Predict the structure.
Amino acid sequence: MQRLLILSVLLGAVLGKEDFVGHQVLRISVADEAQVQKVKELEDLEHLQLDFWRGPAQPGSPIDVRVPFPSIQAVKIFLEAHGIEYTIMIEDVQSLLDKEQEQMLAFQARASSTDNFNYATYHSLEEIYDFIDLLVAENPKLVSKLQIGSSYEGRPLYVLKFSTGGKNRPAIWIDTGIHSREWVTQASGVWFAKKIVQDYGQDPAITAVLDSLDIFLEIVTNPDGFAYTHSTNRLWRKTRSRTSGSLCVGADPNRNWDAGFGLAGASSSPCSETYHGKSANSEVEVKSIVDFVKDHGNIKAFISIHSYSQLLLYPYGYKKAAVADQKELDEVAKSAVAALTSLYGTKFQYGSIYTTIYQASGSSIDWAYNQGIKYSFSFELRDTGSNGFLLPASQIIPTAEETWLALQTILEYTLNHPY
Amino acid sequence: MQPRRPPPPAPGPPRPAAPLLALPLLLLAVQGAAAPAGPEAAEWRPDTGPPHGLLRQAARAALHFLNFRAGSPSALRVLAAVQEGRARINAKKECTVDLVFTTERYNSEEGEESLGKCSARVFFRNRKPRPAVNVTCARLMEKTKRQQEDYRLYKQMKQLRNPLDGVSIPDSHGHIDPSLRPVWELAFLGSSYVMWEKTTRFLHYYMAQLSGVKQWETNDGAIDFDYTVLLHEFSTQEIIPCRIHLVWSPGKPLTVKYHCQELLAPEDASGTEEGSAVAPTELSNF
């Protein structure tokens, strides 16, 4: 009923710029054929400007009519004089319209397309998953959604695939949000996804990349943790897996990979923020990526995005020894950082995890590198501690924009240096 | 140029003033003896330089200490860049760092270009907290301006409705309501003391969030501020809640008492950590 009101009345409003202040909608109950006829007489009186939503039919069928304010008295007197019963269904059409307009706007705050999605604010898991569906629907030839598994608490793990065709082309992996409290990373992931579809076909660099390589992007790599940061604890980092024998929840998904697992640089205590988990790949969120990457078999670059500290890191984290490709990775990191800094002057440091940040065992890029994925990098985005994890939303877009320049450098380098 | 000041007195572990004097003697003694195994016992060679992380660690310790000692919530500083530094480490793995770094205002205004330069000597006692700091900085803010800003902040605090129960500053989206900005800055000032005290050669802290302003009255005109702050320790990634009680009045020394919850006991802590201090008003008689 309400929807009918909106449609009919709004159309009138749009076309005729009417307002409906004081208009009422009456429901008339006709007892017999004679009464039906009487109401039909009313219908014929054009000067009353009656708008029948449900016209006179037969006794027993209710008749609904919108009555403009100036005609209300006349209509009611007429009905009462002839003993025809009626009730007031809508007291004031305009105020109902206003309320529903509000509701519709509220609904629209839920984006109807990726063009009216608000990139400059933080979103819930549901909103990000809706965004993913919208993006795929709007770009079916370029983007598809894959489910690589389910989280500990049963949430789907979605990966966006950007591809212009081919069969199992060499590909680049990007993940954001593996540590749930690092909100600027998931927010940047959303921005990157939109950026890719906007720039394909427009920007020669990304077009060249996508014409030969695929991109896989997992925006919410730790959905259980992310949901928890919204519902309960904004500073939650780990997964939400339960460890038998402990009251503490969760393992650090970036200490759970099979590279130096359990060595110094992770904790064996379930209550620690860097608890490595009961065994390598014990966390389903990690295992799902491992299986995906191994099955794909043709990933050429692996990039994990974190915050904060403003760093661009390459392996190793679990040991001090330099990787065989240290010199090359260092050069790539150097030019990626230069590109990033060129936009807003944001300073980044770069180097191996071990020498630049701290010893960390079981980290994703160490594993990826040891799998033979040479171009493995980890980012730590803004800032350097003033806001930390609680980076103001106003910095989301600048952070994403500058980071994208660094990512593009790595993507182009990967394209131009096949191995 | 501010006169050099030795670290303030405080109850608790003995101040390292004596060991600071003894250090050069210790080093001389070490150098005179047979060369111990490993590179750590000797001075770093000029071409390799000290690990870059160590200089930043020292800069952070110096800044927390500086901010606390200055006692001015409107003149808080953050690290801009480390310019140069060198370090010495002795047989006991105690570390002395001399460095020069630049700072900027924590709440820098649009177009403000000032980069105050600081020089500092920081002494880390291996894994023990409370590094000894000697720091001198070029003045970042004109004294009268700083006093005016402090007084303005003080008035804003007094006007705020109290208590601010259940309020998180910043909120989940990193937003701080302008009316609550003074609360954050004063909390940061008090937290600086705590963060300095807890900093070691390997541990460093940031203020993540104010999770509750419990009780807050003004008494004798001073602001009596009781709050819980969540500190983020970087190398362990732990979030440490600390209950802090500070008393502040513009131009007067800051007093801080605190009680932190240690979730994971490090080497020597027993479970909770307490401390308190009063910033000196004048040069103490060391």
About this structure: The longest strand of chain B covers residues 205-219. Chain B is about 25% helix and 35% strand.
